[in-house]
Amino acid sequence: MALTTKTKLSLIGVIVAVLVIGLVIWNQKRSTTTDEIVIGISPPFAKPLQVAVDEAKKDGINVRLVEFSDWNTPNITLNHGDIDANYFQHQPFLSNAIKEAAYKIKPIAHGIATHVGLYSKKYKSLQDVPNGAQVVIPNDPVNQGRALLLLQQVKLISLKDPNNHLSNLQDISSNPKNFKFVEVEGPQTARAVDEADLVFSYPHYLRLAGTLDPNDALAFDDTTSNRYAILFVVRDDYETQHPEKAEQLKKFIHIYQNSAQVKHAINAEVGEKLWFAGWK
Fold first, then answer.
1. Which CATH number fits domain 35-114+226-277: 3.60.15.10, 3.30.870.10, 3.30.565.10, 3.40.190.10?
2. What angle do CA 139, 143, 148 make, to 5 degrees?
3. Residue 280: band (very low, low, confident or very high) from pLDDT cuts 50, 70, 90
4. What are the TM regions of this chain, as residue ranges (predicted)?
5. Given Cys at both, which of 51, 136, 193, 278 links 265, Cβ 3.0 to 4.6 Å?
């Protein structure tokens, strides 16, 4: 018996639906069974991490790095479960992000800690920076606090609470040179040195941007604490939901922390005297 056009179309629809459902199930199965570990990172950390990725591959550990240009998306993506881990933030930043967005994420290990500095292309010393100078600082609460602590350390400003690492512009109690503060996204501070009088920035971002030698700061912070060490961060349930991948991730982190090749790469990217191990 010949099939009507309506019947043919119905059969085609059923076949297409079955194929779509099959593809969805196959894709879900593939994504849940893959042994690839995906880590979201900031670009300045890419080269040393890639060295660790190449070494880990020799041991059968498959890691893929995904770069993010901002400091918000890596946590959003991790919280959604689209990546296994991220590596771009220190504990104060993470704590603030969890407080503001109720993320279900946590640190699993420490990475490197870097010193931060005050930079200028216009002046050779802090004493030369004039009254009313334009000073660039990060706009996020945590790194802005870190910038203000450094400005206080070198006696350019005073803060109401000299030990508050979350101080903001309203917490400045004394600004004798009447600095004009400009707030920008943290990664953009490295490019602000071309225009501003004085800029708070990070050695690894300066090296990535190529705007200034990161060793040429007018002043560096004097901290040796791992408070600002970059963290490997995972979801709260990662170790229980993905125990095998969690173990592989820990092995990868061990390689990152102990490899001589990785250390050489960090020296090249950050500067040998501008970082220290946050896990010790």
1. 3.40.190.10
2. 90
3. confident
4. 9-26
5. 51
Tell the residue number behind the tokens 């959604």, with chain if given.
80
Tens of pLDDT, residue by residue over 211-253, are 999 999 999 999 889 999 999 999 999 999 999 999 999 999 9
pTM (2 decimals)? Answer: 0.82
Tokens of 234: 């995972």
> How much is the average pLDDT of 18-43?
62
Count Cβ atoms below 10 Å from residue 61 Cβ, excluding itself: 20
Mean pLDDT, range 115-134, rounded to an integer: 98
Packing angle of the helix pair 243-258, 260-270 (nearest 10 deg): 70
Q: Is 70 exceeded by the pLDDT of residue 46?
A: yes
One DSSP character per residue, 52-92 reads: HHHHHHHTT--EEEEE-SSSSHHHHHHHTTSSSEEES--HH
How many whole angstroms separate alpha carbon 242 and alpha carbon 239?
Answer: 5
Task: Return the domain boundaries, the chain.
Answer: 35-114+226-277, 117-220
Amino acid identity for residue 151 in this structure? L
Residue pair 212/206 in contact (Cβ under 8 Å)? The answer is yes
**Distance, CA of 269 to CA of 82 (rounded, Å):** 28
**What is the rounded CA–CA span in Å between residue 178 and residue 156?**
10
